[in-house]
Write a structure and sequence with these properties.
- It is a single chain.
- The protein is mainly alpha-helical.
- It folds into two domains: about 220 residues, Alpha-lytic protease prodomain-like (Up-down Bundle); about 80 residues, Alpha-Beta Plaits.
- The protein is about 70% helix and about 10% strand.
- It has a three-stranded mixed β-sheet with strand order 1-2-3.
- A hairpin with a 2-residue loop joins strand 1 and strand 2.
- Helix 2 packs parallel to helix 7 and helix 4 packs antiparallel against helix 6.
- It is elongated, with a radius of gyration of 25 Å.
Length: about 300
């Protein structure tokens, strides 16, 4: 569900941003507005980002090899991190540079045909809203009772937070561009347009930093959710022959693949064959309750009360 939902949101965002990018480029050609150029580059970055996210999802489907025995699930995290870097370098820094350059050299002049920019931005807002709505719909089943901020921080599916923040940033950015161009149109002074470009750059920079922090955390390897850890813990403790759960560690090696390492003390009356059978049963029970626990490693040990 999550992979399909993420892909649907990405495709919707890709086509929306492609159309918006073309419209904004036309708008910049007719108006010369700095905020319009910043927005065009922003949409170009977003369109490229959707392509990278789709590529990351495809690469993540490769089968495990001897060199990568746990598979390629983290490809999705890696390319989502690259997307954050593109937003920062191609979107944020360019918009800030363009705004600063316009403010320093062209602030005394008005814009050419600002009505073109306003019309194109209004159309772009409609298209971007469609993409944003799709991302929200696809995210809701995974979000559950979490707030949107909690979902962005804790989601193990990287594409949805990326698309949500990209679309939100695009909508807010276009509203900023509208305000800047509108003020420049009314006053005849392009400095307001330049200030709009600067504001767009700062907005994109904040979004890029948030995404980079979250994707870095996923790349380093995040544990399972609290609910999953509690489910695994209860499942282990209720198994016949288990005396103590000594240690439990989990790590996501992909959005839909969880690594589980368990160390337990079994009843000392059990033979090695008995322990092996109970481990097999334990793994089956864990996978039934936590289907993404694809790789489970159970180690028998001795519980040390003094080190508890």
């Amino acid at each position: 569900m999550s992979a399909h939902g993420g892909r649907k949101a990405i495709i919707a965002a890709f086509f929306a941003n492609l159309g918006i990018m073309i419209a904004k480029i036309i708008g910049f050609i007719f108006t010369g507005a700095a905020s319009m150029l910043a927005e065009a580059v922003h949409s170009f970055a977003d369109t490229s980002n959707q392509a990278l996210l789709l590529m990351g999802g495809k690469l993540a489907e490769k089968k495990a090899t001897s060199e990568h025995p746990f598979g390629y699930g983290r490809e999705r995290y890696f390319w989502s991190f690259i997307v954050a870097m593109i937003i920062f370098t191609l979107g944020s820094l360019f918009a800030i540079y363009e705004g600063w350059n316009k403010l320093a050299h062209d602030s005394g002049h008005g814009l050419d045909r600002p009505e073109w920019a306003i019309g194109i931005l209004l159309v772009a807002i409609v298209l971007e809203s469609f993409s944003f709505r799709t991302a929200i719909i696809e995210s809701r089943p995974l979000k559950g009772d979490m707030t949107w901020w909690e979902f962005i921080k804790h989601s193990k599916v990287p594409e949805l937070p990326v698309v949500l923040l990209e679309d939100l940033g695009a909508l807010v950015g276009m509203i900023i561009a509208l305000i800047g161009i509108g003020l420049a149109m009314v006053t005849g002074d392009a400095k307001y347009d330049a200030m709009g470009s600067l504001a767009i750059g700062i907005l994109l920079g904040i979004i890029a930093i948030v995404l980079a922090i979250e994707m870095r955390s996923l790349l380093l390897g995040e544990s399972a959710t609290t609910d999953m850890i509690e489910t695994i813990t209860c499942t282990v403790k209720e198994q016949d022959g288990v005396e103590h759960l000594i240690n439990l560690k989990t790590q996501h090696i992909g959005p839909e693949e969880l690594l589980v390492a368990i160390k337990v003390e079994f009843d000392n009356s059990l033979t090695s064959d008995d322990i092996a059978k109970r481990i097999d049963i334990m793994e089956v029970c864990i996978r039934e309750k936590v289907p993404i626990a694809k790789r489970i490693f159970v180690e028998p040990g001795v519980f040390d009360k003094e080190r508890k």
